[in-house]
Each structure stands twice: as structure tokens, then as C-alpha cells.
Amino acid sequence: MLGKSMYSIFLLQSLGGILFLSSCQIFDQKIDRNEYEVSKMKQFTNPVFEPILADPTVIRDEDAGLFYAYGTEDNWGDGKGNRLMPILRSKDLINWHYVGDVFAKKPNWKHHGGLWAPDINKINGKYYLYYSYSLWGDSDPGIGLAIADKAEGPFEDKGKLFTTREINVPNSIDPSFYEEDDEKFLFWGSFGNGAAQGIHGIPLAKDGASVPDLTKKFKVAAGDWEAAMIHKRAGYYYFFGSKGSCCEGANSEYHVLVARSKSLKGPYLDKTGRDINERGAGTVLLRGNEWMVGPGHHSKIIKDDEGTDWLLYHAIQKDEAKVSSGASRRVLMLDKVVWTDSWPIIGQGVPTQQSDVVPVFKN
């Protein structure tokens, strides 16, 4: 009888231990889930990086779960001179850290100019960075390409795709890559009043590294646009772009507008039905306010792991508009994009100072 009693006590203790461990595991799972729920309720405050990351382009390294952002060459006023297209890294689109530059020295296919407005893409397993090479008032700016095996580089310059004179589009800067059904295109162009001015597109070679036929360009927007980006959603092609002065400190008037089309090559119409090949057309998506001016030249839209769309762009804080080098202090901003009646909306239509939601990424 004593043996049986001891056995019963041992059995009960064992069962109790198993139940205790199981309850701990369930409790731990609840904590994990709760932490995940709490993570979705965190806030963040703009800007997400400063002093400067102008004309941002962003890509996610899916293997590492990291984001990389690249921007226009600028002097940050810290005594380190011009950064030749700076590279930032982040896990969450909110906390960014400078990790280096695309180039240690400028490419030699052009004698003078700045390296502006890069556009990063993953093509054929490699990182393709299209970039502008230009001066203010340059009569022959052009677009080049650099390629790397990793998002952080090192990047190898592949030279020019074309210059303004070769393609016969004035102010040929601000490249933006678009791919669909294994067809690759480059969209580009900037401000100007010339007859051939405007935003154009052109087919790229299958490897994305050259333009087989410069005569196959097509125009999609008038010459009062720049920094174009195409985004496809629910059967529409959305044309996002910027207008106004980008770089005049507190007086900058940059702002973002949008139009849409059922065809990649247009016509792109704003909400009122105007074709953006006419000057003055476009539906305003984002403009400055008393806090931040000159919002614009944004990244491609990034979708988080819950399906929420996000946009990164630069803007200038009105009361701290320049750095000691004299450069406009174009800080990096992040805002959520929502879709209403098949049109994008960002908050109240001005830069958000504090967001009540954050991007959610599970790795």
C-alpha cells in the first residue's frame, strides 16, 4: 500500500509539472503575441533621419530583412565633404544609420557634375542603381548605372545609359525603373520649357543595363514635372511626381502630385480628368506646411508585412532649413499611404509629425 501511495504522489507531481510547463508555454506564447500586438501600436516621430538624405530611394534586402536607402550627393556640413550618394541601413524604416557611400570617387564618363537622384532596384539577383550626373543649368546631363552584388556595395560603375544630347530630352535626370511581364523600362526627366521637355519612358535591354534604341522613347508628362515614379495597383498605373522648387531652404515649394492611367504609356489623368501632358495638371498628394516645406522626390511605395503602404521622401524643416555648408537640410520623412476611391491619400496632405502606427515587419 505504501508503494502504491508513493507512486500515486509521484504521478500527481509529474502530471502537475507537465501542466505547469504547458501553462508556461501557453503564457509565453501569449506574451509573444501581446508583444507583437504592442509593436503595432508604437508611434514614431518624423524626420526618421537627419541632417540630409535628399531624393531617397529604398530597397529591402529580403534575405537579411534589412532596408537600404540611397540619396543625392550632398555636403552634410560636418566637415567631411560631399558624400557621393550616401547609403543608410534600417530594420524598420524608422531607425536609420549611415553605412557609407555608393562611390569613393566620381565616375569619369562626365567631366563635371553632381551625383543626384539615384534609383535602386534588384535585377537578375544584383542591385542596380540608376543615377543622374548633372550640374545646375547643365546643357548635357545624363543617366548612369552602377551595379553591386550586395545592397551595401561595393558598387561598380557601368557608365552612362545616355545623355541629354543623345536622347534629345532636355534635363535628362531623375531615373526611375519599372518592370512588368519581363519588360523593363526607364522613366526620367525634369523641369524645363523646351519643346521636347517632359517626363519620358523608354524600353531597356533584357538585362536592364542598356537602352537598345534611343528612338523608342515616349512622353507621359509635361515639363513642369520631375522625379517621376510609376506604381501599379488594382488595374491602374499611378504616376507620382514632384513640382515646384526643391532646394531653396525655407522658401522651397516642392510638392507631390499624382495621376493615373489604364496603360503604362498613358494618358495619365488627374482626378479632374486632365491629361498631365498639359502643364498645370495633377492631383496634389502632399504639400508643405508651417513645420516642413518642400516635401517631394520620394521613394517607390513600400508595402509592409501587413499590407500597409509607406512612402519615404525628403522635406525641409522651416526653422532649420540649411546646414553649415549652405545645403538645404533635406531630412528623410516617412508616411503611410492609404487608398480611398482608388486614389492615394497621405494623412492631411502635409508631412506627418507623429504617426500613431508604425510599419510592421516580422523578420
UniProtKB/TrEMBL annotation:
Belongs to the glycosyl hydrolase 43 family. The keyword Hydrolase applies. The keyword Cell division does not apply. It comes from the Bacteria. Keywords: Glycosidase, Hydrolase. Pathway: Glycan metabolism; L-arabinan degradation. It holds the Pfam family Glyco_hydro_43. This is Arabinan endo-1,5-alpha-L-arabinosidase. InterPro entries: GH43_arabinanases (IPR050727), Glyco_hydro_43 (IPR006710), Glyco_hydro_beta-prop_sf (IPR023296).
